[in-house]
Amino acid sequence: MVRTFAVAWVGAHIALSGQVQAALIVNPAQPITDRINVNLIATADDDGSDSTAGMFGSAAQQAQVFSLVDVIFAQAGIDVEFAFRPGAYSSSFARTGAPGANNPRPQSDLNAIRNAASAAGGVLSGDPNTINVFLVSIVPGFSALSDNATAGLATIGGNGIAYYGGENLLDFAGGREILASVLSHELGHNLGLSHNTLSENLMQSGGGGEDGERLSAAQIQTILTSRFTVPAPAPTLPGDFNDDDRVDGSDFLVWQRGGSPDRLSAGDLSLWRTQFDNVGGATDVAAAAPPVVPEPAALHLAILGVAGFGIAHSARGRCRRAPGAATDSSDRP
Ligand SMILES: [Zn+2]
Asked: Can you say whether residue 200 is alpha, beta or left, with left for phi > 0 and alpha for psi between -120 and 50 degrees?
């Protein structure tokens, strides 16, 4: 069945000299009840070169970006679970578009990418309720962007996102927040959200230059009724927040990053303490000293010191619907 969706176009965060956003602007987190599964698909050229596999940087940078996405969707009581498709999808068309036809790249390429990936097999998630995100070098609707910018394109209510994150943004806290904000914005589209003009809202369309990632009650309701929103699985072992059948230091890290069922709660921390070592409470808590995690504050300060060279963003006109581009696109759920 072919369904029709408006393609939401979505502004690039072109880096200009300006002010680094201090932090995400979100409403308080809700207890996690649901989950959104995301399949990240790195793309490469046909011969396997120029893979986008490292788009989110080091393991630490990637974890930080993903945890910021979690902070945004925790407003809706949702945990976002990212998984990478093993290996890059070798498709020059997916990565950059047809030669000579990418300045800017046609918006319709998003559907073309998805249809080709569907035909190729083994690229899209086998779960129809998992959102597929193509990590591309040139986003449909855009020309090639610099390493200081990020952009995405998504269907509203459909399954499919094309996303580009400039690598320089990984190097400072404000940049990672921009990356997470745009990625979350595109996820919001797949979850059924359209643009709005609400102040500080995740789905705000451009023009106002207002930053923020808040979700309204109505938006949360829309997200919770999306087919991509599924119940969060109950942990099989109390305190085993990363579901690896062991209650250990890594579960503390998950708690610290807000990934436990009752986000950052004393109750979950207490549960972790009492269940540590998975021995049913006979635990020497003193031995369970949590691992030391590098504080991002120092990094943040260091980056602020160099923000003057222009990586900071200011033009945060996140979303503009392309003029006259109520472009319909077919979407196969
Ligand atoms: Zn948008």
From this structure: left
Ligand 1 centroid to Cα of residue 203, in Å, is 6
The answer to whether 188 touches 180, Cβ cutoff 8 Å, is no
For residue range 168-195, list pLDDT tens digits in order.
Answer: 999 999 999 999 999 999 999 999 999 9
Distance CA 273, CA 249 (A): 10
- Residue 182 Cα, ligand 1 centroid: separation in angstroms? 8
Q: How many angstroms is it from 194 CA to the middle of ligand 1?
A: 7
pTM of the model: 0.71
Phi, psi of 258 (to 5 degrees): 80, 20
Cite the beta strand spans of the chain per DSSP E.
Answer: 3-8, 34-44, 78-84, 89-90, 131-135, 150-155, 161-165, 229-231, 328-331
Q: What are phi and psi of 204, to 5 degrees?
A: -60, 135
How much is the average pLDDT of 56-79?
97
Question: Which two three-digit tokens encode residue 204?
Answer: 């705000």
